[in-house]
Each structure stands twice: as structure tokens, then as C-alpha cells.
Amino acid sequence: MRKKIKVFYVDAFTTDTFGGNPAGVIPNAENLTDVEMQKIANELNLSETAFLLPSTNTNADYRIRYFTPTEEVDFCGHATLGTAWVMATKNNWINKEEKIIFESNIGLIPVKWIIENNQLTKVSMTQVSPQIKSIDINPKIVADLVGIHDTDIDNRYPIKIGNTGVSHLLVPVKTRQAIDRAEPKLKELKKMNNDFNISTTHLFTFDTNGKFDIYTRDFCPNIGIDEDPVTGAANGALGGYLYLENILTNGERHQLVIGQGHAINRPGILYVTITPDGENPIIEVAGPAVVSIEGEIFV
Question: Of 67, 139, 74, which Cα lies nearest the Cα of 103?
């Protein structure tokens, strides 16, 4: 007998259907096997699909797992945001608690509601403490792999690996125009990312014409997706990098507006808050979402 499973498509970091970054959300995955979860993620063919299961952790409300079309990953920002949005709006969680806590492979992820005029406008997830580390790679090689000129690299800032759960190569670029025209060599980029155990390559610039504080693009062929439209995990890691590298003033609270997805016609906006807390800042990534598809899948 086939199982009938509730499924949602959620566009994260946008208020417009077909904008932002779409994620699959399966709120009741307790009767699914690992193989079935992977098959569902492959069938939905989104960058990530999140599955909720009961948690044995008394500090968590649910366990959350993330699958790309080809493999399980430890953390995904936009799928976390999308899942919290579904639980708040479709499963009435907003009337039960002020937040929801997910147990993931990288630890606990609290997500709180942001309500304005009695309406849910955003959800905000607290990511794990940021870490950065150096990488021994020539910037000219990085430029060639992501498909920009080596003169486009902004050498005022270092190319480093940032992490708030998974690793991202953070690449400073002088202009938004250079980021928009980037044409990565996906096969070679995939090999480099695998060699350095990096999930994505994340280009960023402060050249935004005042629309945002930062503009980004994210390439991740090694986890089965050529480009991720709007990336909660990578932009959280970017916020940690900017603080820990003293690009942003230490000891002060920072609120950044980050634009992403415009180059591939999936525009989205992320709100990243960096709060000092001893040696490790607290990184929160917030945004709205919209459910675009609601239905059932038969397994």
C-alpha cells in the first residue's frame, strides 16, 4: 500500500510566489525511510527538501533533515526558514509558541517569529557560532573557476572559508556587474570544492547602488545544484566572516540587508543580524516566505 505524504513548495526570502529560493517541506516524515526521503528530494528536484521527524532531544520540537536531489546535507538555511514558515502558518505553531526549535546534524536551530501589525512578516533563525579558516589557493584560480576576471577580485578582503554549520568559500568581488556576468566552470569548480570539503562558492560585493548592503551569488555543483538562488547558510557564514575579519566593527551590533538571486530571475532579500557575544558573535538570518504549492506525494 502506498503512503500519502503531505508536501509543500515554499519560496523563501521573498513575499512573491516564484521569487526567492524554493524549498520542499515534508512536515510529517516519521514513516519515511532514508531511501524514500532521497527519492522524494530527487522527484521534487529543488536545491533542498526538508523533512521533519520526532526528536529525542528534550530541548527540540522536531528533528530536521535536508536532502538535495543527490545527497543528504547537514544544514540548509532557506529550507529551515521555509519549514518554520509552514509550521507557523499551516500547522498553527505560531499560536503555540514564540519560536520553534529544530534538532539538526549541526545542533539546535531556534527559529523565532517576527510579527508586525498582528501578521507574521518574517522568521529568524539563529545559526551555530561562525568559524573562518584560511585556504591555500591562488585568487586567479578562483576567478577562473567562477568565471570572472582576476582583476574583478576585491583584494581588500581575503578569500576564506566561512562556516555556520557547513563550509562556504567566500569570494570578495569588486562590482555587482562582475558577479552578474560570472559563468562558472561547474565541473572544475565541483572538483575544487570537493578537494577542500566546501559546500558552496559564495561571491559577494559591497557594490549595490544602495539597494542592499551586500549583493551575492552562490554556486554549489558538488551538492547537485549549479546555483542556489538565495542562500541562508552561506550569507550567515558571510556575516560571521565580516565580523571575525574585522571588516565590520567588533563589539557593535550589525544589521545587514543582502540581495541575491537577481541574476537568475529569483530575487530575494535576507536580513542578517550580527550580535556581539564574547569571542563568538550570534548570527541570525531572517526573511519572509510564501507557500507556492501544497499537495500530496504518493510513496
Answer: 74
Q: Which domains does the chain have, with CATH numbers?
A: 4-125+287-298 (3.10.310.10), 131-280 (3.10.310.10)
Q: Strands of the chain (E only): list them.
A: 4-12, 21-26, 49-53, 62-67, 72-73, 99-104, 107-116, 119-126, 131-134, 160-163, 167-172, 200-205, 214-220, 225-228, 254-260, 268-275, 282-287, 289-298
φ, ψ dihedrals at 32, nearest 5°: -100, 140
Cα 163 to its chain centre, rounded Å, is 11
Catalytic residue among 48, 103, 227, 284: 48
CA distance 126 to 130: 11
Query: Which conformational region is residue 240 in: left (phi greater than 0), alpha (psi within -120 to 50 degrees), or beta?
Result: alpha
Give the model confidence (pLDDT) of 186-236 as tens digits: 999 999 999 999 999 999 999 998 889 999 999 999 888 899 999 999 999
The answer, as to whether pTM is greater than 0.90, is yes
The dihedral formed by the CA atoms of 86, 26, 83 and 85, expressed in degrees to the nearest 10: -10
CA angle, 16 then 217 then 126, to 5°: 70
Q: Are 148 and 173 in contact (CB under 8 A)?
A: yes
250-274 pLDDT per residue, tens: 899 999 999 999 999 999 999 999 9
pLDDT in tens, 30-72: 999 999 999 999 999 999 999 999 999 999 999 999 999 999 9
Is 72 a catalytic site residue? no
Average pLDDT over residues 283-288: 98
